[in-house]
Design brief:
Structural class: alpha+beta
Helix content: 25-40%
Length: about 140
């Protein structure tokens, strides 16, 4: 593996997802965490799954733009949504699942949209890191 292009760090303090705080090493991200109401918590603050979804969707969108440029396919009105779910395992632990939804405007053919989404999924660092560990549903739609 080659040398890192970028490294960052975040530190979590307090009670973790139950009212803790997460701060990046540069201080740009500084968030209070809360368990969502759907999991019996108070809500009112972000949670790790939202942060993961935001990171994955933006990283995947960048990968999508990169592979589209490599294929000389201009993207118009593209969006990527990442839906991250947390479930309880039979062993009493927790697991993640994800749905990635790619939307492409500009009259791109469905077959091309599917190919670009698959190519982005092959190179996106989040997709690579979770492959085989997190079940992912990948869909592409066109307008």
């Amino acid at each position: 593996m080659s040398a890192p292009l970028y490294t960052t760090a975040a530190t979590s303090t307090g009670d973790g997802r139950a009212g803790g705080r997460a701060v990046t090493d540069d201080g740009i991200l500084d968030v209070t965490l809360a368990i969502p109401t759907s999991m019996g918590g108070p809500g009112g603050a972000t949670n790790p799954e939202q942060l993961f979804a935001a990171g994955w969707s933006s990283c995947f969108h960048s990968a999508l733009k990169m592979v589209a440029a490599q294929h000389k396919t201009p993207l118009v009105d593209s969006t990527v949504s990442a839906e991250v779910s947390i479930t309880q395992t039979d062993e009493g632990g927790f697991a993640l699942g994800a749905a990635l939804r790619v939307h492409l405007g500009g009259g791109i053919a469905q077959e091309t949209a599917d190919e670009l989404a698959a190519a982005a999924h092959a190179v996106c660092p989040y997709s690579v890191a979770t492959r085989g560990n997190v079940p992912v549903t990948l869909t592409a739609t066109v307008a």
